[in-house]
Amino acid sequence: GCIDNPSNQSTSGGSSETESEAPEVEEGEEVVSIGYSGPLSGPAAYYGERTLNGLKLAVDEINNNGGFEIEDQTYKFNLVSLDDKYLPNETAANAKRLLQENDTPVIFSPHSGGIKAMQVFNEQENFLIGAYTSEPAVTAEGNTLTVRVPPSYDGYLEPFTSYAMENHGMKLAALPTSSQYGKDWTEAIVPYWEEQGGEVVYNSSIDFSKDTDFFTLVTNALKENPDVLFIGGPSEPTAKVAKQARELGFEGGFMIMDQAKLDEMEAVTGSYESLEGSVGVLPLANSEYPGTPAFIEKYKEEHNEVPGSEAGYHYVAMNILMEAMKAAGSVDDPKAIRDHIQDGLDALPEEKEVYTIEEIGEDGGFATDLSIAAVENGEIVTIEVND
Amino acid sequence: MVSLLKNRGWIIGFIAAGVLFPFVLPNAYFLHILTLAFIWMIAVYGLNLLAGYTGYLSLAHAGFFAVGAYGLGLLTVKTGMNYWLALILACLITSAVGLVVGLVALRTREHFFAIYTLCVGYIIYLIIDKWDSLTGGVRGLIGIPEPSNIGPISFQTPISQYYLIFAFLLFTILVMYRIVHSLTGRTFIAIRNSEDLARTLGISTMKNKLMVFVLSAFFAGLAGALYASFIRFIGPDIGYITIIFDLLTYLLVGGIGTLAGPIVGTFLIVALSQSLQFLQDYRMLIFGPLLTLLIIFYPRGIAGAYHDWRLKRKSAQRTRPQKEQEYFETEESEKQVKEG
Amino acid sequence: MLELTDVSIQYGSFTAVENINIHVGKGELVVLLGSNGAGKSSTFNTISGLQKPSAGTIVFEDRPIQGAGPDKIVRSGIVQCAEDRKLFPQMTVKENLVMGGYVHRRKRKQVNQSLQDVFELFPILQEKKDQPAGSLSGGQQQMLAIGRALMAQPKLLLLDEPSIGLAPLIVEQMFEVIQKINQDGTTVLLAEQNAFAALKIADRGYVFESGSVVVEGTAEELLANDRVRKAYIGA
Amino acid sequence: MLMETKKLTKQFGGLTAVNDVDFTIEKGKINAIIGPNGAGKSTFFNLLSGTYTPSAGQVFYKGQDITKRPPDKIARLGVARTFQTTHLFEESTVLDNVIVGHRLRTSSNLWDAVFRTRRFKFEEKKCRDKAMEVLEFVELTHVMDEQAGSITQEEKKRVAFALALATDPEVVFLDEPTAGINPGETEGLASLMEKMVQRGITVCLIEHKMKMIMKLADKIMVLNYGEKIAEGTSEEIMNNQAVIEAYLGGGASA
Amino acid sequence: MDIFIQQVFNGLTIGSVYSLVALGLTLVYGILHIPNFAHGALYMLGAYITLTMMLLWGIHYWIAMAVSVLVVGLLGVLMDRLVFHPLRNAPPIHDKIAAIGILLFLEAFAQLIWGADYRTMETPYGQVVNLFGMTATTQRVLINIGAVVVMILLYLFLKKTYTGSTIIAMAQNREGASLVGINTSRVAMLTFMLSGGLAAVAASLSAPINLVFPGMGHLVILKAFVIIILGGMGSVPGAILGGYILGFTESLGATYISNDYKDIIAFLMLVIILSIKPKGLFSREGF
Ligand SMILES: Nc1ncnc2c1ncn2[C@@H]1O[C@H](COP(=O)(O)OP(=O)(O)OP(=O)(O)O)[C@@H](O)[C@H]1O
Ligand SMILES: Nc1ncnc2c1ncn2[C@@H]1O[C@H](COP(=O)(O)OP(=O)(O)OP(=O)(O)O)[C@@H](O)[C@H]1O
Ligand SMILES: [Mg+2]
Ligand SMILES: [Mg+2]
């Protein structure tokens, strides 16, 4: 079973600084370990930490509320996180370790390489993958024990395009990040843009992990005088790209891939002014899901910053997982838990709904309500999405 | 010949430990880590033959590792070729790439060779990363099959894969041992010690260097191919420079130019890095200085230090003591102003 | 002026020099004789601070200098012209010489004067002054090394086998030069294989054998010593 | 006549280190090259052994033009050399040094090494035997297990000889073989050279030790500023005015 | 045509940053034969220290940069004393691995102190200027001017001062240098000081046009190594020229050949140059 012997757990208390914090366990309670493997050191550490923070917040909350009950047995979570430096083979090794030493029924990982490396053996070794990636291949292969957390970006194409075309014009220059995600996004948006009668005048990508300066690329992207610039990637460098485009005299609008968040970009550009006319995802901070304000409040308290969607999604996912366990009546049967995710979604209390997730698809992907925002007159405005 | 017998003892011990391990400690995680470590060891042996015995420090080996891995991955996934055939082809492809690179790279020396090969390795990485249509780009390659059955033996379980890779490692060690203890090996060492002298002794240094380079690439490719079929997912990052630095670290900590070095170093560093996992974000805060200290206090690696220690003990009894072991690489430019 | 008392030198566990006692008086020209590996260079390197003695004291002008860094020792007035020359191969001959005057770098005039003196001593160096030192022939490099040492205007000059690899004509000149340097007031400690030529210009000498001093005496005494004649003069 | 140079010239930038030198090396003799420092002697050797390629002129070995051959090919023809600064594989033992010296006369390759073929076993033994033979010849068997870096200067010079001899040469080029060793030891090396000639090996050497040269050499060439200024027997050279002026000086000592 | 001028300027800007980083690296590499892979970490710390000075104490940009130069320079010295000095007789590969150890440590350290996220450095020189038909910000102009000034100063220091020559002398023969009375340990420290200072200048100048984060050193370090080899190891003019060559290759290559393959172009160019000139464009004499 996946129950750790409570007496083995050190009672290190709830300090959020220690990474694998064991919950305080009282008589008769049992512990369920949840695994996490992501980049906690190296260049991608900022990303890994944000994802982990979301999980941690949820776990702490659940434990502080006395855990959860299944058939009169009280359980608490023990989040065990391991660093994989963004390397797939390290993720695989970490997963083996988590299974061997902590018997984790679920392992979260926020990068597609690691997820794919785990998918090689997760059905055989029977654990559920909490996949934070919108890489389609992760769900396309029919892995029965994978849950994809973030929404797929398909839904953004239409509203983004129509907003940008209406407000700025038909000429698009694409300059997103060169990650797979960025490429997939571009491959989806470019044909769509053209279908709608637009013209794509430039299409290339920026590698934020290799380029020291973006001026060269932005100059090239702007040379055909586009009306709209499609950019994206981590918020901060994306913001730099936007800012430099303005410096180079670009006056059109930005269409911002969902990985970047307008509010985080604003922190870099200094004001929303240089982002005027942008269309992107609604920042979590401006979202009006039922559970958002409370989450933001709590997160700020812990980490002194406004959370992004990575943290938000992980937080929700953890809560859904708990509900699914309850619905399945088991903490250690990944199959049963997977089969009851939908029940978990339905059972999720409103105050936990940092995002509203309606359902889990056939392929194991969450379907989230999309919310879109634009910057108009130096302020964030919500754009209605008409399905 | 006495030392050979002693070596035998070590080797038998190592084989016994390797064979018995899964029974003594049936732990899936350890098994996984160890299998992976064996794969690294094979690559490190390849590197050792070149850097340790011939004196050419190649930083292109992560690239060769990736070529081997992608060779196997693409052949099996895209053409559906038989695993074993693909494995052989992958190694041959890597050797061929090694040959081409070596032909030019080996004209440079020392730092230039190191950086030249660093660039070659980086170009290989970039090509894998950019050539989406062939390699899948950053997305990587999924669905690489495990080794196909040989007659009744199948390689579906982690234990069977462990033994398979262990066997490859033993094969590698055997080949290395035989090369090093032969005229050919002496020739390599002669090149390491003084290339000019070797040439005036009638040794065709280019031919020999090229041979080592190709062979060394072959083992990097073999390791890469085994990696691909073990992890069964590969992305461009296996060709990135961090991998070559890892390999170098294993080699150096273990002892460059020694036969035991690759095993000792890889095992030690892998174990260390795994056991520091509890430090999470800050493990590099400990690992980094530890690595640096190891290098400072055991400059010849663990195996080298052991060797020195034995030498010292032996020489303490002799009338004319040995000089202190010097580093094998001498700064040519400093030691001799000019020939003649 | 220089006094080595019970000095031993070790490389690892190997004792290269054991308990030697040497003294050099002001203005003297003292020669160290001995076959290869006897420990002459080791002694020199220890005096000039490249090597630390494992035991014993070295006193120069009444101040102990053992264990001091080589740069300090140069500043105190001891300059070595090493056996393997230790030139700066890619710097020009002139730059090498100027670097030799490093300790006097604030006295530009003096450095220039020394430069002229060295050029006078070795005209070939003037001819090649803009060539990189590494492209000189063995003998030319040796002259440059001596010239560089002289640039520091040492009180005590240590010359480690200056005649190695030199043509007979040059060897002769070299010994003349050494004698001249000595007569001009520089104390010289010379290590040589070429015992005959060395003893002809020396005041006193020490004979090294496997790390110990086995014979010492004035030049005449040594020249008259049968054992020395046999081993080092070959007659 | 074993080797011959025709109008051999080597320039470094603007400097002509060897200028139009015609020279023949007589078989079975001791040929010496002398000259002031920087005369171009070592450069001349480097040209003959292929370490440098000439700027002009040709080198012949037994009538074959070997001007542009790389050093390893020339060595295989039977030309061996030592360097002015003794060059050994410092980290290997004396024996291992010399074993490698015979490598060029073997053909076993990686395959043989990995599969331990008959040829492998045969050639390992052959190299070892050869090494023992030349070590005996240079009288060094007592230090054969020492590290080459840790033996005395004189022993190193002998190892350098042994290395050259292990290549089964017909001619050896020795660049100042006795530099830096004392008179007693110098004599030992001189008799070793004579022994080599008795064995039928042609010797060609550079030396500054006139006493030895005059006694040893059958034929002497004098270089000065890269040019040949004299050639002949010891007596002829001793009495050649140009040589005395350029090189020997009055005393002709040491 | 416009775009050409613009891209030349962009290449110049990026080349300036590369050159400055490469200069620090080439000094240490050429003189002490240490391939200091931790140089990228010094660069990163240079940016963080300037940033912290500005944010925490509201110090003016230039003063903050000066502080950073000093601190990072001292850090370089510390690195030399603690790690490279004990390794001075070891072959370069040891330095390489030791340097990687330092790199890992410093990155983790930065993450501990400043966190893993991206930071922005505000500069007082954010204004957009238009010159000769191209667009730039004052900061970018400053990068170009600053780099040239630093290069000239460095060149004069090495060529015209005695202390500068001691650095060169030591590059060629360490023992020889100590035999003429040079304190080699001090020169080694000085070299590291210079190297760290150069890294800090480069980082402080370029941080405002990019971002500050623990991994930022990776952006430049590999390229800097390429540059110093391209230019000829240890060659100061080589490092400068190499930096600009790489800068132009990137900007013009991205414009006229292919953006996606511009890195490959740059590295291929190096491979080709080294194939033709195995010792780099300038050999050591160029110092
Ligand atoms: N760096 C070193 N490490 C180990 N042993 C050394 C070192 N330098 C010298 N030795 C040994 O110390 C002994 C004395 O050497 P040293 O160079 O002082 O002799 P020498 O009298 O100067 O000889 P030579 O005539 O060759 O210059 C020799 O056996 C030598 O091998
Ligand atoms: N690689 C080189 N580059 C430039 N000049 C060189 C080179 N090698 C030798 N020279 C020059 O060529 C000339 C001849 O040098 P060489 O070494 O042949 O002299 P040598 O006769 O052997 O002298 P010695 O007796 O001092 O060893 C010298 O002037 C030297 O400076
Ligand atoms: Mg010579
Ligand atoms: Mg000596």
UniProtKB/TrEMBL annotation, chain B:
Key word Protein biosynthesis present: no
Which parts of the chain span the membrane according to its record? 7-25, 31-50, 57-77, 83-105, 112-128, 162-180, 210-235, 247-272, 284-303
Q: Is Translocase among the key words of this record?
A: no
Top-rank taxon, per record: Bacteria
Residue span of region Disordered: 315-340
Q: Which UniProt keywords apply?
A: Cell membrane, Membrane, Transmembrane, Transmembrane helix
Bilayer topology:
Multi-pass membrane protein
The name this protein carries in UniProt is Branched-chain amino acid ABC transporter permease
Task: Please report the organism this UniProt entry assigns to the protein.
Answer: Halobacillus kuroshimensis
From TrEMBL, chain C:
Stored InterPro entries: AAA+_ATPase, ABC_transporter-like_ATP-bd, ABC_transporter-like_CS, BCAA_Transport_ATP-bd_LivF, P-loop_NTPase
Q: Does the keyword Transport apply?
A: yes
Return the similarity comment: Belongs to the ABC transporter superfamily.
- What keywords appear on the UniProt entry? Amino-acid transport, ATP-binding, Nucleotide-binding, Transport
Example GO molecular function term? ATP binding
Q: Which organism is it from?
A: Halobacillus kuroshimensis
- Which positions fall inside the ABC transporter domain? 2-235
Q: Which SUPFAM superfamilies match?
A: P-loop containing nucleoside triphosphate hydrolases
Name of the protein this chain belongs to: ABC transporter ATP-binding protein
UniProtKB/TrEMBL annotation, chain D:
Annotated transmembrane regions: none
Tell me a Gene Ontology molecular-function term this record carries: ATP binding
This protein's source sits in the domain of life called Bacteria
Q: Mention any Pfam family matching this sequence.
A: BCA_ABC_TP_C
Domain ABC transporter, chain residue ranges per copy: 3-250
Write out the entry's keywords from A to Z: ATP-binding, Nucleotide-binding, Transport
Among PANTHER family, the record links this protein to: AMINO ACID ABC TRANSPORTER ATP-BINDING PROTEIN, CONSERVED COMPONENT OF ABC TRANSPORTER FOR NATURAL AMINO ACIDS-RELATED
Name of this protein:
ABC transporter ATP-binding protein
Q: In which organism is this protein found?
A: Halobacillus kuroshimensis
Automatic annotation (TrEMBL), chain E:
Q: Organism's domain of life?
A: Bacteria
Regions crossing the membrane: 12-32, 65-84, 96-114, 141-158, 179-205
A single Pfam family it belongs to is BPD_transp_2
Keyword Nucleotidyltransferase attached: no
Topology relative to the membrane: Multi-pass membrane protein
Q: Which UniProt keywords apply?
A: Amino-acid transport, Cell membrane, Membrane, Transmembrane, Transmembrane helix, Transport
Q: Where in the cell is it found?
A: Cell membrane
**Protein family:** Belongs to the binding-protein-dependent transport system permease family. LivHM subfamily.
Q: What is this protein called?
A: Branched-chain amino acid ABC transporter permease
In its UniProt entry, the species of origin is given as: Halobacillus kuroshimensis
